[in-house]
Design a protein that fits this description.
heterodimer; A: about 700 residues; alpha+beta; four-stranded antiparallel sheet; 29 strands; about 40% helix; about 20% strand; elongated; B: about 750 residues; about 20% helix
């Protein structure tokens, strides 16, 4: 039996450690002027720091200021029934479509009312476009009105003189039940027209300049997970055709907006992709004429849950001539991205509590940009137009980013420094400065800034050169030391054999070192000769816990998945000590019932000794992650996998020996052990909740007495 | 064993009894008196209630309205606009009906206890016209008690003639209820400060932030409504995390008014402003008038997951609003400001000041962040500025500019800028220099042109300390407690608690905490203390009826601030409510903009018109705005000197702080900006320092003219185009100034 005193001490130590590690305090946000930073109303300007798997929203200096608020009378209207879309022509005239009233309000580039377009006629017939949902000004100065309710696109000149009408053409490629309800139109410089129809998951309808139907363009694809595929297969075998026809099928998400850029690439915005918690990457795509997305497929647009806002429903997208992408979500956020999908800024906010503040949206419906990059947006519930203007900081940031993307690192450097002066939180600036140092072969500085930017790619490149320089300098020395060490070990072994010397005289330690080489022999000794030390086992758990924690905190920057501040060794403690103890106890309980011969002490020894390869793996990780670059990470993975397999092997062989089980019985008892562990966990949680409620009850009674 | 059990049980019972009885003696919460269904009505005939050289106060029994008659001008002021008093006729000779709201002395919001819905009732319709009221003469006026028989409550109000007009008080102590419906809010004389829809040369004045004007040019079948709490939202509501639209400016001055062509009325909420809202009812075509008025909360309220809950008891503080008619040149917002300043002078005493050219610097000490040390998440202060660095920055800046410095040390307590213990534990974090560091700094700048303040947050906390516990003394807890009892659901089931963002110092412990902070500040020999939250927070504490609906906050704060002053401490206020500003020596973060309601037409610097030349005031930090030029111009218009938020060192760890005050604060990055701004504006500030604003004109939508008492005139141009002023061309987003007025 394990020494009682030892066990008591061990448990006490663990309790103390647990208490120490559970120290926590919550930082809070006050609603005072200082704590919210930028004193602008409304104020939710931020950017997202890309930090591995731990993206975080951080305060950011606003790039845009609210420049103008245009109420109905400012656009020349008494009442706006409902703004449905906005477009801006080559002369920066703004066209505001009130689809419900079938009126287009035209403003000049100074945002002064210019005219209204309402009575459209074509071949002597008056065209009613009530219910129109979209309007687009093309590069050749035509307006394309998506006349949704009348299933047509009206093409006019900029004064509203109708040039032609576009309808759904007959084509065997178009399903017979297809309902044509155009929502948005994009027109490229060659006059190819892309029409987005309401509810169409086939993509945009592509028309030639002569209005011939060329096919569907750029449909989103359906991603099917492995479990969904399995489910489908199961249903195929178990359900009838009639039942299957009633089941919902997963269709591609439909577009919410289209935009043709100056290079005739088509941007598509897809509203909210997936349910909450699912990935909603690729909400914005830049499709080549061949329909391929040229943006980073994994890039994320909008706000993820937990980053300080609601999940984004992207409703509008445009891009400027420098390929900066501006998209907006219905919940009042406007995002600015570069063409490498880095978020530069997010501004705008939702008026959830109906405070009625200028600049806060009830429903942000669409946006467009002028040639000076004013962002013009419409709120189709408040019937207001908000115009944002790029401020000096925004101009510097966009220019720095543009220069960098074009490879003009030297020109970008002073701008990045200016950006950092005004917003020291700017991740892009750190990354830009790091790249500049890299091309100037200032690798240490490049690494320093890349680490600040959490830019692993640049860090890896710089580190490669630093390592190369180090090796160039010290290769001979390293080689000599390595040879000396290997030679020394060999010599020592030879000497040891010759003289029959035993370096480690302690039997338990001998056993421990032997476990990785001859696990069967070791565990036979444990079973038959009562060898093995629970104290050493406990020490192994502690070493495993410490190395696992060190792995997270001392691992090389290139291989950490997030900022180390998020590491909580309490979780590591549960994963190490908790699992080992739980396995030991439950396995003993299960195996006793299944005629296993192992005792608690033996199971504990087997389980803890099996950790030795994992400890070696952790140490190897700490060393190698500080020596290797990103693309050499496979070595670490291989070592980790080998060690994990070896641990499993030791555990299996040990368990077989101590319980005197066949392999089949081992598998069975192991499954039962895992189930048992889950049950224990469940019961533990229930008891914990009950105790918590009991304390809450006592506290309530106490408060009642105090406040009565 | 049995015997032992019996003993333990007996002891436990005794303890419970002793505790219960001792608790009972602490605070007595009183319910309103019971409504007498068989009350007697006393419908007096018309009479003159009071008279002085300027006005007479009369009761007109036929109209069932109180009238304030201006003897000089002959104007009549009453619950409704003067124009509505005379009958008007349509083309068929049929008399037009006057909307009953135009006759209402009060509008009442009440809570139906059956379903907790809030409904409104018009005092004129439900009481006066029904004949269920009584009138009782008082010394300078009369008391009107309105009985709402169908709803089961009565509300008395008192009209009092004053030297300058009329005051109306609501007497919460004399409100009676059957318990069927609970009086929640009373709006006083809702159309006294009103103007006809679409009237020319007229506006409503609302003191949101710096001040706002609303033109009566919006009409609709339903009203556009604006309503905001005076002195900001109840922080005990804010303490429970809720979504808010970014920053906001609160109402800091309990004054409002109306300009109706060549006459106007300015109203001051003299008592119970903390429990009041300022409301506007705009453009309702059925009523025909646009109005601004105030409402008093009669009950406390708390927002919970189950909706708004209301207290059983009613507020016990006096509630009074006074109205002062103004005419001709005085009938505009400058006139309102002058009258309000006179009122403040009479009530509290205001003295003119002499100002130097100065810059206010808010130094942020550091922030507590969770840092992983060997995998153990620990709360650690990350220093941003130490006390030594504060000295270095001040010295460095003063070598470049010849300005006085107001330095406010914020977030130097035991948890930095993060609010854990109240008042930062009344200590200084060692990493930031410790108490000795602050002491050295104070000694260094003693007798110099550096005015040093150490900031204490006396109100919010997240960890127990200085005698406050997060378990048992937070008023937000007791708030929920009282209100939950009203609904009789278990306190422990209230999930709102899990959303608690921060705790608030129990109101009865505020003075105690303030004393502890005072003792600490005196120990460090600083010349003054910054009282950020105290100077602008208002909150309820439902453990004591005196503190319901934020009541008596003004008195509590004034008492604390006066105590500080008696102990030789100077006071720095932030974003100050009027009473805090008056009690302080220096004020930062004074609003230069409004709350940006869509209903506001023009932003005006009302706050500065009232206080410029009487208090040393600074704008919000210029390095924390999206558009520095615009904010600089707003500061110029207001006459507020400039302020900045600064730190010395930024480490990326600070990015993990919940606060956003670090990213644009690094002194080395901001120094040129500060120096340039100072050099560009110092002559202007020299020209207006110590002067009061005697006139402010909206020349057009984007150009303003400000005239100072020393003859300085300033033109500020917010437009994109040049403006030709008598002093020369004013470039876009620029200003010119010179001598020219007196």
């Amino acid at each position: 039996m394990i020494n009682k005193k030892f066990f008591t001490r061990f448990i006490c130590l663990i309790l103390v450690l647990s208490l120490l590690f559970s120290v926590s305090a919550s930082a809070v946000t006050l609603m005072s002027k200082d704590s919210t930073g930028y004193n602008d109303i409304p104020n939710t300007t931020f950017t997202v720091w890309n930090a591995g798997n731990n993206d975080s929203a951080v305060a950011s200096k606003p790039m845009y200021d609210l420049y103008k608020t245009l109420n109905p009378d400012d656009v020349g209207a008494d009442v706006i029934a409902c703004y449905t879309d906005i477009t801006i022509d080559n002369s920066d005239n703004i066209y505001l479509l009130d689809g419900n009233a079938a009126v287009i309000y035209v403003l000049d580039s100074e945002y002064k009312p210019l005219k209204q377009i309402s009575n459209l006629s074509y071949n002597g017939e008056t065209l009613d476009f009530k219910g129109a949902k979209g309007i687009t000004a093309s590069a050749d100065d035509k307006l394309y009105i998506s006349d949704t309710e009348n299933a047509r696109v009206i093409v006019t000149d900029l004064d509203g003189n109708v040039i032609r009408l576009m309808f759904l053409v007959d084509s065997p490629l178009i399903p017979t039940d297809f309902i044509f309800r155009p929502l948005r139109v994009a027109v490229d410089r060659n006059n190819y027209v892309y029409v987005l129809s309401d509810g169409s998951y086939y993509g945009a309808i592509l028309y030639s300049p002569t209005d011939e139907f060329l096919g569907f363009f750029g449909a989103n694809s359906v991603t099917v997970s492995f479990s969904q595929a399995l489910l489908a297969l199961w249903q195929k075998f178990t359900t009838t055709n009639a039942k299957r026809s009633k089941q919902m099928s997963k269709l591609p998400y439909t577009f919410s907006d289209l935009f043709a850029d100056h290079e005739d690439f088509i941007y598509t915005a897809t509203g909210s992709v997936g349910e909450w918690g699912e990935s909603n990457s690729a909400q914005v795509k830049r499709l080549s004429p061949g329909g391929l997305n040229t943006l980073d497929q994994s890039a994320f647009f909008g706000i993820k849950g937990g980053l300080g806002g609601d999940k984004s429903d992207i409703v509008g997208v445009v891009a400027d001539d420098n390929n900066f992408i501006y998209c907006c979500s219905s919940n009042g956020n406007i995002f600015v991205y570069d063409n490498e999908c880095n978020m530069l800024n997010c501004f705008g906010t939702l008026d959830k509590t109906n405070d009625g503040k200028v600049g806060a949206y009830k429903y942000l419906a669409a946006l467009d940009i002028t040639s000076d990059r004013d962002v013009v947006t419409i709120d189709n519930q408040r019937m207001v137009v908000y115009v944002y203007r790029l401020n000096d900081y925004g101009k510097t940031l966009l220019e720095a980013d543009r220069l960098q993307i074009n490879g003009a690192y030297d020109e970008a450097l002073p701008l990045w420094k200016e950006v950092l002066k005004q917003d020291i939180n700017n991740q892009m600036a750190y990354s830009g400065i790091s790249k500049n140092h890299l091309i100037h072969e200032e690798y240490s500085e490049a690494m320093e800034y890349a680490e600040k930017a959490f830019d692993k790619d640049t860090y890896s490149l710089a580190f490669k050169y630093v390592r190369r320089d180090f090796l160039d300098k010290y290769l001979n020395l390293i080689f000599i030391i390595t040879v000396l060490i290997i030679g020394g070990i060999v010599a020592l072994n030879v000497y040891k054999k010759k003289k029959n010397i035993i370096w480690i005289k302690n039997r338990e330690l001998q056993l421990l070192f032997k476990v990785s080489i001859h696990p069967n022999d070791v565990f036979k000794d444990v079973k038959e000769k009562q060898y093995g030390s629970p104290k050493l086992g406990a020490l192994l758990i502690i070493i495993y816990y410490v190395t696992t924690t060190m792995k997270n905190s001392l691992g090389g920057f290139l291989f950490v998945s997030s900022f180390s501040v998020n590491l909580n060794s309490l979780i590591t403690l549960i994963r190490t000590l908790g699992v080992v103890l739980l396995w030991t106890i439950v396995n003993w309980a299960v195996c006793t019932l299944m005629e296993g011969k192992g005792k608690v002490r033996e199971i504990f020894i087997v389980t803890t000794y099996a950790l030795v390869p994992l400890i070696i793996s952790n140490i190897a990780y700490i060393v190698l992650s500080n020596c290797l670059v990103s693309n050499e990470g496979a070595f670490i993975s291989i070592i980790a996998t080998v060690c994990e397999l070896f641990t499993a092997f030791i555990l299996i062989s040990g368990t077989l020996i101590i319980h005197d089980f066949t392999f089949g019985k081992f598998v069975g008892t192991s499954i039962l052990t895992v189930i048992g562990m889950l049950i224990v966990l469940f019961v533990g949680i229930v008891v914990f909740i009950l105790i918590q409620q009991l304390f809450a009850f006592v506290a309530t009674v106490f408060r009642e007495i105090v406040y009565r | 064993m049995n015997k032992l059990l019996k003993k333990i049980s007996l002891i436990a019972i005794c303890l419970v009894l002793v505790l219960s009885l001792s608790a009972c003696s602490d605070v007595m919460l009183e319910l309103p008196a019971v409504f007498d269904k068989d009350h007697e009505n006393n419908k007096a005939t018309s009479f003159v209630a009071a008279e002085n050289g300027n006005y007479s106060l009369e009761w007109d029994s036929s109209k069932k309205m109180a009238f304030l008659k201006d003897k000089t001008t002959g104007n009549i002021w009453s619950a409704g606009p003067e124009e509505s008093l005379e009958p008007t006729y349509d083309e068929n000779g049929v008399e037009n009906t006057v909307h009953p709201k135009l006759k209402a002395p009060i509008l009442v919001d009440y809570v139906e206890t059956e379903n907790f819905n809030v409904k409104s009732v018009n005092g004129y319709v439900a009481s006066l016209s029904a004949g269920t009221f009584s009138i009782e003469k008082t010394d300078d006026g009369f008391k009107l008690t309105m009985f709402f028989d169908k709803l089961g409550f009565s509300i008395p109000i008192v009209y009092t003639l004053t030297e300058n007009g009329l005051s109306v008080s609501v007497l919460p102590d004399e409100i009676t209820e059957t318990g069927e419906n609970l009086v929640y809010k009373v709006s006083v004389m809702p159309f006294m400060c009103s103007v006809k829809n679409n009237a020319e040369n007229s506006y409503l004045f609302v003191p949101s932030g710096s001040g706002a004007l609303i033109y009566p040019d919006k009409t609709s079948e339903v009203s556009f409504v604006y309503s905001n709490d005076v002195y900001g939202e109840d922080q005990s509501l804010n303490a429970i995390g809720d979504y808010k639209v970014g920053n906001g400016e609160s109402i800091r001055l309990p004054v409002f008014g109306v300009k109706n062509k060549d006459k106007g009325c300015v109203a001051i909420i003299e008592e119970g402003a903390e429990s009041s809202t300022i409301d506007c009812d705009i453009g309702n075509s059925a009523i025909g008038y646009t109005t601004v008025y105030n409402s008093f909360y009669i009950r406390g309220r708390q927002s919970t997951k189950k909706g708004i809950k209301y207290s059983e008891q009613i507020v016990s503080a006096p509630l009074k609003v006074s109205f002062h008619p103004v005419y001709n040149d005085e009938a505009d917002y400058v006139g309102f400001a002058n009258y309000y300043r006179e009122y403040l002078d009479k009530t509290y005493g205001l003295e003119k000041i002499t100002e130097d050219n100065s810059i206010a610097l808010k130094f942020i000490g550091g922030s507590t962040i969770k840092k992983s040390i060997l995998g153990i998440p620990m709360d650690t202060i990350v220093p941003a500025t130490t006390t030594t660095q504060v000295g270095e920055i001040i010295d460095d800046l003063q070598s470049s500019v010849d300005a006085s410095i107001v330095a406010d040390l914020i977030g130097f307590g035991n948890s930095g800028y993060s609010n854990t213990k109240v008042a930062g534990g009344a200590t200084v974090a060692l990493k930031l220099g410790g108490k000795s560091g602050v002491k050295k700094l104070a000694q260094k700048y003693n007798e110099s042109n550096v005015d040093l303040y150490f900031d204490y947050d006396l109100i919010t906390f997240t960890k127990s300390g200085l005698g406050l516990s997060t378990k048992f003394t937070g008023p937000a807890l007791s708030t929920l407690h009282q209100i939950s009892r009203h609904e009789e659901y278990s306190f422990s089931n209230n999930k709102s608690i899990s959303n608690m963002v921060y705790f608030l110092t129990a109101r009865n412990k505020l003075a105690d905490i303030a004393n502890k902070a005072l003792k600490a500040a005196k120990g460090m020999k600083v010349s003054g203390v910054g009282l950020d939250t105290l100077s602008n927070y208002n909150y309820s504490d439902f453990a004591d009826q005196r503190y319901f609906a934020k009541a008596n906050m003004k008195n509590d704060v004034l008492s604390i601030m006066n105590n500080y002053k008696e102990n030789g401490m100077r006071i720095l206020a932030n974003d100050a409510n009027d009473y805090s500003l008056i009690a302080s020596n220096v004020a930062l973060d004074i609003p230069t903009q409004t709350d940006k309601s869509v209903l506001f037409d023009v932003e005006i610097p009302f706050y500065s018109i009232v206080f410029k030349g009487y208090k040393q005031m600074y704008s919000t930090s210029l390095n924390y705005v999206a558009n520095e030029k615009l904010r600089l111009l707003q500061s110029i218009e207001s006459g507020f000197q400039l302020s900045y938020t600064l730190i010395k060192d930024f480490t990326l760890d600070l990015r993990k702080s919940s606060y956003q005050v670090f990213s644009a604060s690094v002194y080395d990055n901001q120094k040129d900006f500060i120096v340039n701004n100072y050099n560009e504006t110092k002559d202007y500030y020299s020209a207006v320092n110590g002067a009061t604003i005697i006139n402010h004109l909206l020349i057009n939508e984007d150009v303003r003219k400000i005239e100072y008492s020393n003859g300085t005139v300033v033109y500020v141009n917010y437009s994109d185009e040049d403006y030709q002023s008598p002093l020369g061309t004013v470039k876009p987003l620029d200003y010119v100034y010179g001598k020219g007025a007196k």
